[in-house]
Design goal:
mainly alpha, 63 residues
Length: 63
Amino acid sequence: MPDATLTISDTLMSKLNEYAKAAGQPGGEEFARMILQREIDRLEDSGADQKIEDRLRGLGYIS
């Protein structure tokens, strides 16, 4: 799959660059990728938790 391009405002890019420095990232682009990946991981983990809960409910361990 080819890389995609995301357009953001100059204001947001400035903030990303600022926070990237504070987080020890080389720049705003890398920082944005890290944030997006972390959020995707969190959402995927949340879905996994729901599947486990559904499975336990189906087995009668929780109601």
